[in-house]
């Protein structure tokens, strides 16, 4: 059985419930979704500073799942449910199971259905980090990044309608001004609005949660694991000091 851990690296329980619901909606029968938050971290991830601290909570959560898997309930693959791909490279060093971030997965899907596309992210502070990821994943010539001018947590609760309208306006600008042929949702908290936005815009709208979950599900079915031959090799055994002592690599 394929068992996928979907880890939201911020502390929003509402976001975690939302991404877990979407993941369970799209997987094949027999695939199990384990959706969770870390035990510590920022309320939301908006820029480099939040990302640095969220990565530690993510890795701690993964270590717990890996330890549990050694005695049963093994995880087939991990989805890091943040569009900044928070801690993904470090996470790949921690496990043999495949690890996928939302940005990388969404860009792979977008490049199949459109020759040019746009990421719409909530805040301007996330634009440059996402542009760096777009470059890393080789999509700079195809992709533009725009901010909707709302907070990440606005997609929950009483501000959700306002956030959706701002997102839609920004997406329409991408289509009209940037030549985008598809829209990529640049936040895990947008996962439940992809179908609505796609129907209203009339172009493909890619949700990173769905894209990442389906890619990890396919990798599990194919028996693919993270290579330990190079960059993602397990970290060498050494001591860590202070509050990071518990994170020291072990044999």
From TrEMBL:
Coiled coil: none annotated. InterPro entries: Asp/Glu/hydantoin_racemase, Asp/Glu_race, Hydantoin_racemase-like, Iso_Racemase_Enz_sf. SUPFAM superfamilies: Aspartate/glutamate racemase (SSF53681). Pfam families: Asp_Glu_race (PF01177). PANTHER family: PROTEIN DCG1 (PTHR28047). Belongs to the HyuE racemase family. This is Asp/Glu/hydantoin racemase. It comes from Thalassospira xiamenensis.
């Amino acid at each position: 059985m394929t068992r996928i851990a979907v880890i939201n690296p911020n502390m929003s329980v509402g976001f975690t419930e939302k991404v877990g619901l979407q993941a369970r909606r799209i997987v094949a029968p027999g695939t199990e979704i384990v959706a969770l938050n870390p035990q510590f971290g920022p309320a939301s991830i908006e820029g480099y500073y939040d990302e640095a601290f969220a990565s530690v909570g993510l890795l701690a959560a993964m270590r717990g799942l890996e330890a549990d898997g050694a005695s049963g309930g093994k995880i087939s693959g991990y989805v890091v449910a943040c569009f900044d791909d928070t801690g993904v490279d470090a996470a790949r060093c921690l496990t043999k199971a495949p690890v996928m971030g939302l940005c990388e997965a969404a860009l792979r899907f977008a490049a199949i259905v459109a020759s040019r596309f746009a990421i719409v992210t909530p805040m301007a502070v996330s634009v440059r980090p996402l542009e760096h990821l777009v470059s890393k994943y080789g999509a700079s010539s195809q992709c533009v990044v725009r901010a909707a001018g709302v907070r990440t947590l606005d997609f929950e609760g009483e501000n959700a309608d306002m956030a959706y309208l701002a997102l839609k306006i920004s997406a329409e600008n991408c289509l009209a001004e940037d030549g985008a042929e598809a829209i990529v949702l640049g936040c895990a908290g947008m996962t439940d609005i992809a179908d609505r936005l796609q129907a209203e815009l009339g172009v493909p709208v890619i949700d990173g949660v769905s894209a990442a979950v389906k890619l990890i599900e396919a990798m599990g079915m194919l028996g693919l694991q993270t290579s330990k031959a190079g960059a993602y090799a397990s970290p060498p055994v050494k001591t860590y000091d202070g509050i990071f002592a518990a994170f020291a690599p072990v044999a």
